């Protein structure tokens, strides 16, 4: 079931509307419903799906239902979708174990049609206004079936997810929650804690945020996320997140002791270990030669980034990762461009031929 003719989305915020757009792009007729009628209508206008009057109206004849509600309402929504349709039902909740347990206990025999999931994509922004099918392009989409999930249903969800450009990865629910505590939930906690610390220090040092440059802005981007949404997520995964925070605190304390103790070699070793791990993260699994990171100053004006990527495309240089840091003074920005290591020399030459001055950082 890689090609579905009828898809329903319940919960039409950022992820739900992005799923609706991706499903429509793949050729499906999409219906959508949100508990807030105004959100339903806004999302339908942006994504072009049929706005349903009720959850039952949305899912009645669907072949696949995606529940993309806030985490606190995932369980009742999934159970209602299973009861109101004969469709396969998946969800996008970022915590799996408690949701899966409650659905299985409540839905009984219908739970065979429930295949839990979690797309590892999104943004600190929320709402359908920020949705795009591209949010799901190339992302890892965790598929976390329970023991009673039907094999055909699991295969169908994995194939469907892959059909619009995501990469399905099958995990047990408990393992998923432990891993996302480190790579998703802990980064949110760290970003929020750092921003909170700087804000409290600002009371006596009003210039502190004026001095915030690219590194601080990068690290605190997630602090702009929806507070209510993240409070629910962190409490739902409290044990795994608490354990991750404890380990992070231990790692910070070790680095603090190295710095305060003037153990320069140890500090450098810690930084190098982290740098090498970050470079591996920047590369797709198919990149075997390692990666190189180039820093390029670009003017902060419309079309500047498009021009940079176009010249690389014309020069047959593939971009593995790209980050933009805006200067606090305005007028310019810095692009950190990751390419395969064996393409670094070519990328440098291509950019230089267009009047840019790339500096290799790694």
Short descriptors:
362 residues, alpha/beta, 6-phosphogluconate dehydrogenase C-terminal fold, Alpha-Beta Plaits
In short:
The chain is an alpha/beta fold and 362 residues long. 48% of the residues lie in helices and 16% in strands. It has three domains: 6-171, Rossmann fold; 176-262, 6-phosphogluconate dehydrogenase C-terminal like domain (6-phosphogluconate dehydrogenase C-terminal fold); 282-360, ACT domain (Alpha-Beta Plaits).
Written account of the structure:
This protein has 13 helices and 12 strands. The chain folds into 3 domains: 6-171, NAD(P)-binding Rossmann-like Domain (Rossmann fold, 3-Layer(aba) Sandwich); 176-262, 6-phosphogluconate dehydrogenase C-terminal fold; 282-360, ACT domain (Alpha-Beta Plaits, 2-Layer Sandwich), CATH 3.30.70. A 5-stranded parallel sheet has the order 3-2-1-4-5, sandwiched between helices. Strand 4 (64-67), helix 4 (74-84) and strand 5 form a beta-alpha-beta unit. Helix 1 (14-25) packs parallel to helix 2 (37-47) and helix 7 (173-201) crosses helix 10. The protein is of the alpha/beta class and 362 residues long.
Rg for CA atoms? 23 Å
The CATH architecture of the largest domain can be given as 3-Layer(aba) Sandwich
Overall residue-averaged pLDDT value:
89
CATH class of the largest domain: Alpha Beta
Strand order in the sheet with the most strands: 3-2-1-4-5
Number of strands: 12
Query: What's the number of structural domains?
Result: 3
CATH superfamily of the largest domain: NAD(P)-binding Rossmann-like Domain
Percent of residues in helices comes to 40-55%
SSE series: EHEHEHEHEHEEHEHHHHHEHEEHE
Structural class: alpha/beta
Percent strand equals 15-25%
| CATH fold title of the largest domain | Rossmann fold
Largest sheet: 5 strands, parallel
């Amino acid at each position: 079931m890689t090609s579905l003719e009828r898809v329903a989305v319940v919960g039409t915020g950022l992820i739900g509307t992005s799923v609706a757009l991706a499903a429509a792009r793949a050729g499906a007729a999409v219906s959508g419903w949100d508990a807030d009628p105004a959100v339903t209508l806004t999302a339908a206008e942006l994504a072009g799906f049929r706005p349903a009057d009720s959850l039952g109206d949305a899912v009645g004849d669907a072949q696949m239902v995606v529940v993309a509600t806030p985490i606190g309402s995932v369980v009742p929504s999934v159970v209602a979708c299973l009861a109101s349709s004969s469709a396969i039902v998946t969800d996008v909740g970022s915590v799996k174990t408690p949701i899966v347990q409650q659905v299985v206990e409540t839905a009984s025999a219908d739970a065979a049609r429930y295949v839990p999931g979690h797309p590892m994509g999104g943004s600190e922004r929320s709402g359908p206004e920020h949705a795009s099918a591209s949010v799901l392009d190339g992302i890892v989409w965790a598929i976390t079936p329970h023991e009673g999930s039907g094999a055909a249903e699991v295969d169908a969800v994995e194939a469907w997810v892959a059909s619009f450009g995501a990469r399905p990865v099958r995990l047990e629910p408990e393992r998923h929650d432990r891993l996302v505590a480190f790579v998703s939930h802990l980064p949110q906690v760290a970003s929020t804690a750092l921003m909170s610390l700087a804000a409290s220090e600002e009371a006596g040092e009003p210039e502190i945020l004026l001095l915030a440059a690219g590194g601080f802005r990068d690290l605190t981007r997630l602090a702009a996320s929806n507070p209510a949404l993240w409070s629910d997520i962190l409490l739902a995964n409290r044990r795994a997140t608490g354990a991750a925070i404890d380990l992070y605190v231990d790692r910070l304390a070790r680095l603090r002791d190295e710095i305060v103790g003037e153990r320069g070699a140890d500090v450098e070793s810690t930084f190098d270990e982290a740098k090498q791990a970050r470079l591996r993260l920047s590369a797709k699994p198919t990149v075997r030669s390692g990666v190189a990171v180039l820093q390029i100053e670009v003017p902060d004006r419309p079309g500047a980034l498009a021009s940079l990527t176009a010249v690389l495309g014309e020069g047959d240089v593939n971009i593995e990762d790209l980050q933009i840091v805006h200067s606090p003074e305005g007028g310019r920005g810095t692009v950190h461009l990751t390419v395969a290591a064996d393409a670094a020399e070519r990328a440098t030459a291509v950019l230089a031929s267009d009047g840019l001055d790339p500096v290799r950082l790694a």
